[in-house]
Amino acid sequence: MEIHLRELRYFVAAAEELNVTRAAERLFVSQPALSKQLRALERQLGFTLFDRVPSGLALTRQGTALLPVARDLLARWDEGLDLVRQAAPSGTLVIGLQTAVGRGIQAEALRRFRERMPGWMVSLRVVGWEDPSAGLSDGSSDVAFVWLPAPEGVATRVLATERRFVAMPENHRLAAREEIDFAELRGEPFVALPETAGPLRDFWLGGPGTIIGAEAASPDGVFEAVLAGLGLVLLSEGNAELYRRPGLVARPVSGLSPARLALAWRAADRRPAVTAFVHSFG
Length: 282
Description:
single chain; alpha/beta; Arc Repressor Mutant, subunit A; D-Maltodextrin-Binding Protein, domain 2; five-stranded mixed β-sheet; four-stranded mixed β-sheet; 9 helices; 13 strands; 36% helix; transcription; DNA binding; DNA-binding transcription factor activity
């Protein structure tokens, strides 16, 4: 049996809120995705953690017994991870990212970081869109480049604000347009992020009610789905340049709020290396 930290965090949030909707908002995931994860955890454990009641959730005897254990395990993991990271004067700063950053954003900041933290290495880690925090929530990343909105408990600094574009096959009926109003795309299927991406999934679908033709958890998966005719995809103006593909065109979309690329870190993280990296962006 393998129980992951994320599943324990989901359980603790649901047990403390006793309401799936509030717990999902706190965790920054969709309500169906959280319910699915809780049921999966119950199947792995072999017993029921919650009774479903009219007011929401009620802990079973097993759930009540597990709650302090789960809290303790999560607290000990977080404390242990901090101790390990602080054990040496040098180390590795892990930077999570879900799409290419480009835009001339990283190079100068990395130079400043190395000046502030000599001896430190930087590791870039690609994280699938199943985790909208890009590794911050489970501690596998120290800082991250994310698209807003960001999960609860994450501090952010906006680095770029860009128009949203739509990518489509070059033979699409709207491909010749200079600009497309989002209202004209309402009947089109779109490629969606995984349900666990929560509000970020809705943002890149242009809001609720959009038809979903396929799901993908990485940029390569998204563009393969678009080329296969499974749906269109919204992306930022900068990423429209970074992810050019033969057979695809990208057009600006009116009627949508802009996309914001941000540097993110855990709000409670005061480690010198994290602070130095944040300050490297001015």
